[in-house]
Amino acid sequence: MKKIVNLQLLNGTTLDLLSSIRHDELTRFIRSISENAKVGKLVDLDRELMKLTNNVISRMVTNERCMDKEGEEAENVGKLIAEITVAGGSFNLSDYIWLFKTLDLQGFEKRVKDLRSRFDVIIERIMKEHEEARKHKEVGGVQDLLDILLDVAQDESMEVNLTRENIKAFIQVCQYMHAA
Fold first, then answer.
1. Which of 16, 50, 94, 146 is geometrically suited to a Cys-Cys bond with 100, CB 3.0 to 4.6 A?
2. Cα pseudo-dihedral 167, 12, 155, 130, rounded to 10
3. Cα 30 from Cα 94, distance rounded (Å)
4. What is the pLDDT of residues 128-142, one digit of tens each?
5. How many CB atoms lie within 10 A of CB 65?
6. If we measure between CA atoms, which residue out of 74, 59, 71 comes closest to residue 130?
7. For the chain, how big is the Rg over CA atoms in Å?
8. Could you say which DSSP state residue 69 is in?
9. Residue 148 CB partners (closer than 8 Å, separation 6+)
10. Is the pLDDT reported for residue 116 higher than 70?
11. Residue 74 and residue 66: Cα distance in Å, rounded?
């Protein structure tokens, strides 16, 4: 996976191809700040910068904005990523006392399984949409990171067999690393 990330996902060419996404999101950010300034509206700059960063990463990975003002699902994705981050960083007694290893005293195991299944449903939908769009897409068009991962998964000549679960895990790590 490290080789795939270095050679295909985060190389200079791929990052250059995705620069239009960064430019577009930065333009939206500046436009939003400007519009709010014109009407004298206060802006929570921390929130807006977090939204900018989330949208850049989300669009680079899946070509979908995750922090749009429109759409309840976009808001839910943002909240879900925040919940996953909190759950991953919370103190779990079972991690430190071997006697409690098999017990879910604080309910973390149940909570993490629920979060994971909710995230899985969203990512599976996005992957299916990508696969459907790829059937009708012109060869040589701009690809996001998910398209590249799907290409690698379908390439039988690769030394690593990438599964759907591997792709979902990669996307989750991308989102988690940013949120952390």
1. 94
2. 50
3. 46
4. 988 888 887 765 566
5. 21
6. 59
7. 19
8. S
9. 8, 9, 14
10. yes
11. 5
Alpha-carbon distance values, 173 to 12, 91, 122 (Å): 21, 20, 15
Residue 56: CB atoms within 10 A of its CB come to 20
Distance of CA 159 to the CA centre of its chain: 25
- Give dist(CA 113, CA 115) in Å, integer: 6
DSSP, collapsed to helix, strand or coil, labels residue 168 as helix
Assign a CATH topology to domain 2-179. Answer: Cytochrome p450 (1.10.630)
Q: How far apart are CA 28 and CA 35, in angstroms?
A: 10
E strands of the chain, at which residues? none
CA distance 98 to 81: 29
- The fraction of the chain above a pLDDT of 70, given in percent, is 83
pLDDT digits (tens, 9 = 90+) for 50-95: 888 888 888 888 877 776 555 455 566 667 777 877 887 788 888 8
Residue 131, both tokens: 């696969």
d(CA 91, CA 161): 35
**Per this entry, what is the length of the chain?**
180
